[in-house]
Write a structure and sequence with these properties.
The protein is mainly β. The chain has one domain: Tachylectin-2, Chain A (5 Propeller), CATH 2.115.10. It is built from 3 helices and 26 strands. The longest helix has 25 residues. The protein is globular. The N terminus is likely disordered.
Length: about 400
Protein backbone atom coordinates (compact mmCIF):
# COMPACT_ATOMS: atom_id res chain seq x y z
CA UNK A 1 0.00 0.00 0.00
CA UNK A 2 1.63 3.27 -1.07
CA UNK A 3 2.26 6.17 1.32
CA UNK A 4 -0.09 8.60 -0.44
CA UNK A 5 -3.00 6.16 -0.20
CA UNK A 6 -2.27 5.56 3.50
CA UNK A 7 -2.39 9.29 4.20
CA UNK A 8 -5.70 9.55 2.32
CA UNK A 9 -7.12 6.61 4.26
CA UNK A 10 -6.09 8.10 7.64
CA UNK A 11 -7.57 11.48 6.66
CA UNK A 12 -10.86 9.87 5.61
CA UNK A 13 -11.08 7.82 8.82
CA UNK A 14 -10.43 10.86 11.02
CA UNK A 15 -13.01 12.92 9.12
CA UNK A 16 -15.62 10.13 9.42
CA UNK A 17 -15.04 9.84 13.17
CA UNK A 18 -15.29 13.62 13.57
CA UNK A 19 -18.63 13.71 11.72
CA UNK A 20 -19.90 10.77 13.77
CA UNK A 21 -18.97 12.37 17.11
CA UNK A 22 -20.48 15.74 16.23
CA UNK A 23 -23.65 14.22 14.76
CA UNK A 24 -24.08 11.95 17.78
CA UNK A 25 -23.61 14.87 20.17
CA UNK A 26 -26.12 17.09 18.42
CA UNK A 27 -28.68 14.27 18.30
CA UNK A 28 -28.69 13.84 22.08
CA UNK A 29 -31.51 15.22 24.17
CA UNK A 30 -30.64 18.63 25.63
CA UNK A 31 -29.22 18.64 29.14
CA UNK A 32 -31.83 19.65 31.70
CA UNK A 33 -30.96 23.16 32.91
CA UNK A 34 -30.45 23.88 36.63
CA UNK A 35 -33.41 25.33 38.58
CA UNK A 36 -31.89 28.85 38.67
CA UNK A 37 -31.23 28.94 34.92
CA UNK A 38 -32.54 32.28 33.51
CA UNK A 39 -33.61 30.46 30.33
CA UNK A 40 -36.45 28.79 32.26
CA UNK A 41 -38.43 32.01 32.75
CA UNK A 42 -38.06 33.41 29.23
CA UNK A 43 -40.77 33.57 26.55
CA UNK A 44 -38.26 34.09 23.73
CA UNK A 45 -34.55 33.49 23.15
CA UNK A 46 -32.58 35.97 21.03
CA UNK A 47 -28.84 35.17 21.35
CA UNK A 48 -26.58 38.11 20.57
CA UNK A 49 -23.22 36.31 20.87
CA UNK A 50 -21.55 32.89 20.83
CA UNK A 51 -18.52 31.36 22.54
CA UNK A 52 -17.10 27.93 23.22
CA UNK A 53 -16.27 26.26 26.50
CA UNK A 54 -13.99 23.28 27.13
CA UNK A 55 -15.74 20.16 28.45
CA UNK A 56 -14.88 16.52 28.92
CA UNK A 57 -11.67 15.24 30.49
CA UNK A 58 -7.96 15.29 29.72
CA UNK A 59 -8.28 11.90 28.01
CA UNK A 60 -11.55 12.78 26.28
CA UNK A 61 -11.23 16.47 25.44
CA UNK A 62 -14.30 18.18 23.93
CA UNK A 63 -15.76 21.63 23.53
CA UNK A 64 -19.29 22.99 23.19
CA UNK A 65 -20.33 26.08 21.22
CA UNK A 66 -22.93 28.07 23.15
CA UNK A 67 -25.45 30.68 22.06
CA UNK A 68 -26.05 33.35 24.71
CA UNK A 69 -27.94 36.53 25.57
CA UNK A 70 -25.76 39.19 27.13
CA UNK A 71 -28.72 40.93 28.81
CA UNK A 72 -30.21 37.90 30.57
CA UNK A 73 -27.32 35.44 30.95
CA UNK A 74 -29.30 32.69 29.21
CA UNK A 75 -27.02 30.13 27.51
CA UNK A 76 -28.01 27.31 25.18
CA UNK A 77 -25.64 24.61 23.90
CA UNK A 78 -25.54 24.50 20.09
CA UNK A 79 -23.05 21.82 19.06
CA UNK A 80 -20.37 19.68 20.71
CA UNK A 81 -17.19 18.60 18.96
CA UNK A 82 -13.95 16.80 19.91
CA UNK A 83 -10.69 18.69 20.29
CA UNK A 84 -8.48 15.59 20.02
CA UNK A 85 -8.52 13.31 16.97
CA UNK A 86 -8.87 9.54 16.97
CA UNK A 87 -5.13 9.15 16.29
CA UNK A 88 -4.21 11.48 19.16
CA UNK A 89 -3.63 14.55 17.01
CA UNK A 90 -4.77 17.94 18.28
CA UNK A 91 -7.78 19.53 16.56
CA UNK A 92 -7.36 23.30 16.61
CA UNK A 93 -10.72 25.07 16.99
CA UNK A 94 -10.47 28.81 16.37
CA UNK A 95 -11.97 31.83 14.65
CA UNK A 96 -15.53 31.31 15.87
CA UNK A 97 -17.95 33.71 14.08
CA UNK A 98 -21.69 34.31 14.32
CA UNK A 99 -24.34 36.25 12.37
CA UNK A 100 -28.14 36.19 12.53
CA UNK A 101 -31.27 37.88 11.19
CA UNK A 102 -35.00 37.86 12.06
CA UNK A 103 -37.68 36.80 9.58
CA UNK A 104 -41.40 36.51 10.44
CA UNK A 105 -40.53 36.67 14.12
CA UNK A 106 -38.04 33.77 14.03
CA UNK A 107 -34.27 34.12 14.44
CA UNK A 108 -32.13 32.49 11.74
CA UNK A 109 -28.47 32.11 12.62
CA UNK A 110 -25.24 30.71 11.25
CA UNK A 111 -22.08 29.90 13.23
CA UNK A 112 -18.73 29.39 11.47
CA UNK A 113 -15.52 27.99 12.94
CA UNK A 114 -12.28 26.36 11.89
CA UNK A 115 -10.85 23.03 13.00
CA UNK A 116 -7.58 21.49 11.91
CA UNK A 117 -6.13 18.09 12.70
CA UNK A 118 -2.42 18.82 12.69
CA UNK A 119 -0.69 17.48 9.61
CA UNK A 120 -3.80 15.99 8.00
CA UNK A 121 -6.79 18.22 7.34
CA UNK A 122 -8.18 21.70 7.94
CA UNK A 123 -11.90 22.47 7.60
CA UNK A 124 -14.07 25.58 7.99
CA UNK A 125 -17.44 24.39 9.33
CA UNK A 126 -20.87 25.98 9.54
CA UNK A 127 -23.86 25.20 11.72
CA UNK A 128 -27.25 26.68 10.76
CA UNK A 129 -30.25 26.92 13.08
CA UNK A 130 -33.42 28.87 13.73
CA UNK A 131 -35.21 29.85 16.93
CA UNK A 132 -38.98 30.19 17.29
CA UNK A 133 -39.87 31.50 20.74
CA UNK A 134 -37.41 29.58 22.90
CA UNK A 135 -37.19 26.45 20.73
CA UNK A 136 -33.81 25.96 19.07
CA UNK A 137 -33.94 23.84 15.89
CA UNK A 138 -31.17 22.85 13.42
CA UNK A 139 -31.69 24.35 9.96
CA UNK A 140 -29.31 22.32 7.82
CA UNK A 141 -27.14 21.72 10.87
CA UNK A 142 -23.45 20.92 10.51
CA UNK A 143 -21.87 21.32 7.06
CA UNK A 144 -18.46 21.95 5.51
CA UNK A 145 -17.74 25.31 3.90
CA UNK A 146 -14.02 25.16 3.05
CA UNK A 147 -11.59 22.23 2.94
CA UNK A 148 -7.87 22.55 2.29
CA UNK A 149 -6.43 20.90 -0.78
CA UNK A 150 -2.82 21.00 0.43
CA UNK A 151 -2.33 21.11 4.20
CA UNK A 152 1.31 22.17 4.17
CA UNK A 153 1.08 24.79 1.41
CA UNK A 154 -2.03 26.80 2.37
CA UNK A 155 -4.41 27.57 5.21
CA UNK A 156 -7.18 29.94 6.23
CA UNK A 157 -5.78 32.23 8.91
CA UNK A 158 -8.84 34.39 9.65
CA UNK A 159 -12.38 35.06 8.42
CA UNK A 160 -15.63 36.89 9.11
CA UNK A 161 -19.29 36.18 8.33
CA UNK A 162 -21.47 38.77 6.58
CA UNK A 163 -24.40 40.22 8.60
CA UNK A 164 -26.93 38.35 6.42
CA UNK A 165 -24.96 35.07 7.00
CA UNK A 166 -24.61 34.44 3.23
CA UNK A 167 -20.97 35.31 2.46
CA UNK A 168 -17.64 34.48 4.05
CA UNK A 169 -14.69 36.89 3.86
CA UNK A 170 -11.45 35.06 4.60
CA UNK A 171 -7.70 35.44 4.57
CA UNK A 172 -5.90 32.71 2.61
CA UNK A 173 -2.21 32.09 3.21
CA UNK A 174 -0.35 30.24 0.45
CA UNK A 175 3.21 29.05 0.12
CA UNK A 176 4.40 28.55 -3.45
CA UNK A 177 6.60 25.40 -3.34
CA UNK A 178 8.32 26.39 -6.60
CA UNK A 179 9.41 29.90 -5.56
CA UNK A 180 9.09 29.83 -1.76
CA UNK A 181 6.90 32.95 -1.90
CA UNK A 182 4.38 33.59 0.87
CA UNK A 183 1.17 35.01 -0.58
CA UNK A 184 -1.76 36.50 1.36
CA UNK A 185 -5.21 36.94 -0.19
CA UNK A 186 -8.44 38.44 1.11
CA UNK A 187 -11.31 36.56 -0.56
CA UNK A 188 -15.11 36.22 -0.64
CA UNK A 189 -17.02 32.97 -1.11
CA UNK A 190 -20.76 32.27 -1.38
CA UNK A 191 -21.50 29.86 1.50
CA UNK A 192 -24.62 28.32 -0.01
CA UNK A 193 -22.60 27.48 -3.13
CA UNK A 194 -20.12 25.57 -0.95
CA UNK A 195 -22.95 23.85 0.93
CA UNK A 196 -24.32 22.54 -2.37
CA UNK A 197 -21.05 20.65 -2.99
CA UNK A 198 -20.73 17.25 -1.35
CA UNK A 199 -17.27 18.04 0.04
CA UNK A 200 -17.52 21.83 0.44
CA UNK A 201 -15.28 24.27 -1.45
CA UNK A 202 -11.52 23.95 -1.63
CA UNK A 203 -9.58 26.91 -0.25
CA UNK A 204 -8.70 28.10 -3.76
CA UNK A 205 -12.12 27.54 -5.30
CA UNK A 206 -12.45 29.35 -8.65
CA UNK A 207 -15.74 30.94 -7.55
CA UNK A 208 -14.01 32.83 -4.74
CA UNK A 209 -13.53 36.55 -5.43
CA UNK A 210 -10.03 37.88 -4.65
CA UNK A 211 -10.48 41.32 -3.03
CA UNK A 212 -6.79 41.93 -2.34
CA UNK A 213 -3.54 40.05 -2.90
CA UNK A 214 -0.13 40.62 -1.34
CA UNK A 215 3.20 39.23 -2.56
CA UNK A 216 6.81 39.79 -1.48
CA UNK A 217 8.62 42.75 -3.04
CA UNK A 218 12.36 42.77 -2.59
CA UNK A 219 13.28 42.01 1.02
CA UNK A 220 9.85 42.95 2.37
CA UNK A 221 6.90 40.58 2.51
CA UNK A 222 3.75 42.67 2.34
CA UNK A 223 0.94 41.13 4.37
CA UNK A 224 -2.83 41.31 4.76
CA UNK A 225 -4.78 40.56 7.92
CA UNK A 226 -8.12 40.55 9.79
CA UNK A 227 -10.91 40.66 7.17
CA UNK A 228 -13.96 42.19 8.89
CA UNK A 229 -17.46 42.82 7.54
CA UNK A 230 -19.01 46.24 8.09
CA UNK A 231 -22.40 46.23 9.87
CA UNK A 232 -24.31 47.27 6.74
CA UNK A 233 -22.95 44.33 4.71
CA UNK A 234 -21.35 46.38 1.92
CA UNK A 235 -17.77 46.68 3.22
CA UNK A 236 -14.92 44.37 4.14
CA UNK A 237 -12.16 45.98 6.23
CA UNK A 238 -8.64 44.58 6.53
CA UNK A 239 -5.12 45.61 7.53
CA UNK A 240 -2.36 45.96 4.91
CA UNK A 241 1.26 45.87 6.07
CA UNK A 242 3.65 48.31 4.38
CA UNK A 243 7.44 48.52 4.96
CA UNK A 244 7.21 51.38 7.48
CA UNK A 245 3.55 51.59 8.48
CA UNK A 246 0.20 49.78 8.48
CA UNK A 247 -2.89 50.81 6.53
CA UNK A 248 -6.51 50.08 7.41
CA UNK A 249 -8.11 49.47 4.04
CA UNK A 250 -11.61 48.48 3.00
CA UNK A 251 -13.37 47.04 -0.01
CA UNK A 252 -16.69 48.69 -0.84
CA UNK A 253 -19.11 46.48 -2.75
CA UNK A 254 -21.54 47.99 -5.25
CA UNK A 255 -24.93 48.94 -3.82
CA UNK A 256 -27.39 46.06 -4.15
CA UNK A 257 -24.58 43.61 -4.92
CA UNK A 258 -26.48 40.73 -3.25
CA UNK A 259 -29.13 40.87 -5.99
CA UNK A 260 -26.81 41.37 -8.97
CA UNK A 261 -25.34 37.89 -9.11
CA UNK A 262 -21.82 36.57 -8.59
CA UNK A 263 -19.12 37.84 -8.64
CA UNK A 264 -19.78 41.26 -7.06
CA UNK A 265 -18.10 44.45 -8.28
CA UNK A 266 -16.13 46.55 -5.79
CA UNK A 267 -13.67 49.39 -5.26
CA UNK A 268 -10.79 49.65 -2.78
CA UNK A 269 -10.14 52.57 -0.41
CA UNK A 270 -7.84 53.45 2.50
CA UNK A 271 -9.44 54.55 5.78
CA UNK A 272 -6.34 55.58 7.75
CA UNK A 273 -2.78 54.47 8.48
CA UNK A 274 -0.20 54.49 11.25
CA UNK A 275 1.80 57.00 9.19
CA UNK A 276 -0.68 59.70 10.30
CA UNK A 277 -2.04 57.92 13.38
CA UNK A 278 0.81 56.14 15.23
CA UNK A 279 -1.69 54.45 17.57
CA UNK A 280 -2.53 52.09 14.73
CA UNK A 281 1.00 50.63 14.44
CA UNK A 282 0.48 47.91 17.07
CA UNK A 283 -2.97 46.81 15.86
CA UNK A 284 -3.54 43.05 15.82
CA UNK A 285 -7.29 42.86 15.13
CA UNK A 286 -10.48 44.87 14.62
CA UNK A 287 -14.25 44.55 14.33
CA UNK A 288 -16.96 46.80 12.90
CA UNK A 289 -20.31 47.66 14.48
CA UNK A 290 -23.05 50.25 14.88
CA UNK A 291 -23.29 52.31 18.09
CA UNK A 292 -25.32 55.45 18.83
CA UNK A 293 -26.33 55.78 15.18
CA UNK A 294 -22.77 55.72 13.79
CA UNK A 295 -20.34 53.08 12.52
CA UNK A 296 -17.38 52.27 14.77
CA UNK A 297 -14.37 49.99 14.70
CA UNK A 298 -13.24 48.23 17.86
CA UNK A 299 -9.46 48.11 17.45
CA UNK A 300 -7.34 45.61 19.39
CA UNK A 301 -3.71 46.51 19.94
CA UNK A 302 -0.91 45.52 22.28
CA UNK A 303 0.31 47.63 25.15
CA UNK A 304 3.66 49.38 24.72
CA UNK A 305 5.33 47.46 27.57
CA UNK A 306 3.37 44.27 28.21
CA UNK A 307 1.70 41.62 26.08
CA UNK A 308 -1.83 42.50 27.14
CA UNK A 309 -4.52 43.56 24.73
CA UNK A 310 -6.29 46.91 24.77
CA UNK A 311 -9.43 47.75 22.81
CA UNK A 312 -9.88 51.26 21.36
CA UNK A 313 -12.84 52.67 19.47
CA UNK A 314 -12.59 54.46 16.13
CA UNK A 315 -15.45 56.47 14.62
CA UNK A 316 -15.47 55.40 10.96
CA UNK A 317 -17.51 58.39 9.83
CA UNK A 318 -15.04 60.78 11.48
CA UNK A 319 -12.23 59.06 9.58
CA UNK A 320 -13.99 59.74 6.28
CA UNK A 321 -15.22 63.27 6.98
CA UNK A 322 -11.96 65.29 7.09
CA UNK A 323 -8.47 65.29 5.59
CA UNK A 324 -5.70 63.64 7.64
CA UNK A 325 -8.20 62.66 10.34
CA UNK A 326 -7.45 61.68 13.91
CA UNK A 327 -10.43 59.44 14.48
CA UNK A 328 -9.44 57.42 17.55
CA UNK A 329 -11.96 58.23 20.29
CA UNK A 330 -11.11 58.54 23.97
CA UNK A 331 -12.59 55.11 24.77
CA UNK A 332 -10.19 52.34 25.75
CA UNK A 333 -10.38 49.24 27.94
CA UNK A 334 -8.45 46.03 28.51
CA UNK A 335 -9.38 43.02 26.39
CA UNK A 336 -8.82 41.12 23.16
CA UNK A 337 -10.85 39.56 20.33
CA UNK A 338 -13.47 42.35 20.03
CA UNK A 339 -16.79 41.97 18.20
CA UNK A 340 -20.15 43.77 18.22
CA UNK A 341 -23.70 42.90 19.12
CA UNK A 342 -26.51 44.35 16.99
CA UNK A 343 -27.39 46.86 19.71
CA UNK A 344 -23.91 48.39 19.82
CA UNK A 345 -22.11 46.53 22.62
CA UNK A 346 -18.59 45.11 22.38
CA UNK A 347 -18.20 41.41 23.18
CA UNK A 348 -14.57 40.46 23.88
CA UNK A 349 -12.13 38.33 25.84
CA UNK A 350 -12.27 39.91 29.27
CA UNK A 351 -9.08 41.13 30.98
CA UNK A 352 -8.68 43.21 34.07
CA UNK A 353 -5.72 45.06 35.58
CA UNK A 354 -5.86 42.85 38.70
CA UNK A 355 -5.18 39.62 36.81
CA UNK A 356 -1.74 38.10 36.43
CA UNK A 357 -0.07 39.77 33.44
CA UNK A 358 1.57 36.48 32.50
CA UNK A 359 -1.81 35.03 31.51
CA UNK A 360 -3.16 38.21 29.96
CA UNK A 361 -3.77 36.79 26.49
CA UNK A 362 -6.44 35.61 24.08
CA UNK A 363 -6.63 32.38 26.10
CA UNK A 364 -7.89 34.19 29.21
CA UNK A 365 -11.09 32.14 29.26
CA UNK A 366 -13.53 34.94 30.23
CA UNK A 367 -16.16 36.69 28.10
CA UNK A 368 -16.52 40.44 28.67
CA UNK A 369 -19.01 43.11 27.60
CA UNK A 370 -18.53 46.84 27.04
CA UNK A 371 -22.01 48.40 27.11
CA UNK A 372 -20.95 51.94 26.17
CA UNK A 373 -20.20 52.92 29.78
CA UNK A 374 -18.67 50.04 31.76
CA UNK A 375 -16.84 46.76 31.15
CA UNK A 376 -18.12 43.65 32.92
CA UNK A 377 -17.40 39.93 32.93
CA UNK A 378 -20.24 37.83 31.49
CA UNK A 379 -19.21 34.17 31.70
CA UNK A 380 -16.42 31.62 31.21
CA UNK A 381 -15.59 30.92 27.58
CA UNK A 382 -13.25 31.31 24.60
CA UNK A 383 -13.33 33.18 21.27
CA UNK A 384 -16.66 34.99 21.79
CA UNK A 385 -18.27 36.68 18.82
CA UNK A 386 -21.26 39.05 18.64
CA UNK A 387 -24.04 38.64 16.07
CA UNK A 388 -23.12 41.98 14.46
CA UNK A 389 -25.01 43.88 11.81
CA UNK A 390 -27.60 46.65 12.14
CA UNK A 391 -30.18 46.84 14.96
CA UNK A 392 -33.34 44.83 14.28
Amino acid sequence: MNTRFCKWLVSFAVFFCLIFVISTATAKKPVKPPPDDPCLTMDSFSPDYVFYRDTGTRKNSKSIIFLAESATGCERALVEFPTVGENGGYIDVRYLKYSSFIEDGDTFGRVIWRSSLTGIEEIVWSYDFYISGTELTPNGGLRKVLVNGSYWDQNVRDFDLSPDTATLAFKLYRNDPATGEHVYDIRLIDIDYCHALSSGCFFEDERAVVLAESRPEGDFNYWLDSPTWGPMGNRVYFTRGEPEYNVLQFIELDEGWEDEGWPPSFISKDLFSSETQPEFQRVRGHASGFMDGAEYLAIERTHELINCGYIYLVNVWDCESVDNPVCFTGVEFEGTNPSWTKDGKVIHHYHHSKINRKVCSVWGGKVGLYDGIDVNELTDGYFPDGAGGLPE
